[in-house]
Design brief:
By secondary structure, this protein is an all-beta fold. Helices cover 2% and strands 45% of the residues. Strands 12, 15, 16, 18, 19 and 20 form a 6-stranded mixed sheet that branches. Strands 22, 25, 26, 28, 29 and 30 form a 6-stranded mixed sheet that branches. Helix 1 links the parallel strand 9 and strand 10.
């Protein structure tokens, strides 16, 4: 009837047909889908022979006779089987006999459902969509969701909720509800585990970051703790005399660690804690550098031979001490200059110290900091 229709891709046999004759769809090499209704009783010789793209077929219980080479075979240098061909049918049926005699894979439609993926509990903000999902194996599966109110043992059928996934808008009234799915087919049913719905509340900060005083170069940490579900953290900083908070990219933990430097003295830090329900900013905490901070660096100078060369440094801090060092050209070693313990130094330039570098170490009880290096260039008189 349709022998050799190589462009035919799908066939649906209508209700009322009882017999599919010999070679009816033989050679339909592009055929990938066949639907056979209940009521068909006989499938003839080579009815679907040569349908090399057809990898599975579901055969109803009404089929009492399947002739040779009806499914799963094609000819190429001899009779060959379609790779991985699967027959879906019922225990004790003609479909099972045909599959076993031809050594095809037989999938038993008599099996009850087996749940392979359980619904997970979810936490969402009020008014947001809550979703639950179940996955199961088995044929001709049906789904029916149920819910259980808090402090109740009764499961209530949720009319119209008959898909594998359940989605709805959360409200205050369904906070704490549980949801499960009954998966069934003609061979039985199974209840999924229950997933709970929890309405998220806006985060509440329980411990604020504290201001820190630290010596220059020391490691400092700010921390925040908060109550709430599914929390995320974002630290911000604000420069002195500024009204703008700046998001600090990558600083997304409950604690913030950094090194105290001259650049971040008197900076303020706060953390924005958020979830789907909203966000809240912590109180600000200030970083105060207690060690010396250099505010003006020594500058390189060029002076004539025999003239006075001067270098100076300015710094803030309590009880400051100064110690100048020098480094010879081509050397990597800084040498302490004995007796040079003021904020400024002056000395006579000569050819011996041409190209020397000078820096000052400023210190107090809270730490020390090195100035930038400044170079002396001695000009020879004409």
């Amino acid at each position: 009837t349709f022998d050799g229709c190589s462009s035919l891709t799908s066939v649906t046999i209508p209700e009322g047909v009882t017999y599919i004759g010999n070679v009816a769809f033989s050679g339909c090499s592009s055929l990938t889908s066949v639907t056979i209704p209940a009521g068909v009783t006989d499938i003839g010789y080579e009815a679907f022979f040569g349908c090399s793209s057809l990898t599975s077929v579901t055969i109803p219980e009404s089929v009492a006779s399947i002739d040779d080479y009806a499914f799963g075979w094609f000819y190429k240098n001899g009779y060959q089987k379609v790779d991985g061909f699967t027959i879906y049918g019922y225990n004790g049926s003609e479909a099972q006999r045909y599959a076993e005699e031809n050594e095809f894979c037989f999938a038993n439609l008599d099996a009850a459902p087996v749940i392979t993926g359980q619904p997970e509990s979810v936490s969402v903000a009020l008014g947001k969509t809550a979703s639950f999902h179940v996955t199961a194996t088995g044929e001709n599966l049906k789904y029916q969701w149920q819910y259980q109110k808090p402090n109740s043992e009764a499961w209530i059928k949720w009319s119209g909720k008959t898909e594998a996934s359940l989605s709805f808008k959360s409200t205050a009234s369904n906070n704490g509800y549980k949801y499960r799915c009954v998966v069934s087919n003609r061979n039985g049913s199974v209840n999924s585990e229950a997933g709970s719905l929890t309405l998220l509340s806006k985060p509440e900060i329980t411990t604020q970051p504290q201001s820190v005083s630290a010596g220059f170069g020391k490691a400092v940490t700010f921390r925040v703790t908060a109550a709430g579900e599914n929390l995320s953290y974002q630290w911000q900083y604000k420069k002195p005399n500024s009204g703008t908070w700046i998001r600090w990219s990558g600083k997304t933990a409950a604690s913030l660690s950094l090194k105290a430097t001259a650049a971040n003295n008197d900076y303020q830090y706060r953390c924005v804690v958020s979830n789907e329900a909203g966000s809240v900013a912590s109180e600000p905490a200030t970083l105060n550098i207690t060690g010396p901070i250099i505010t003006a660096q020594p500058q390189s100078v060029g002076v004539a031979f025999g003239k006075t060369a001067s270098f100076s440094v300015t710094a803030t801090g309590e009880n400051l001490h100064y110690q100048w060092q020098y480094k010879k050209p081509g050397s990597s070693s800084w040498i302490k200059w004995s007796g040079k313990t003021e904020a400024s130094i002056s000395f006579r330039a000569s050819d011996k110290n041409d190209g020397y570098q000078y820096r000052c170490v400023v210190s107090n009880a809270d730490g020390s900091v090195k100035s930038n290096a400044a170079t002396l260039t001695v000009r020879t008189a004409n």
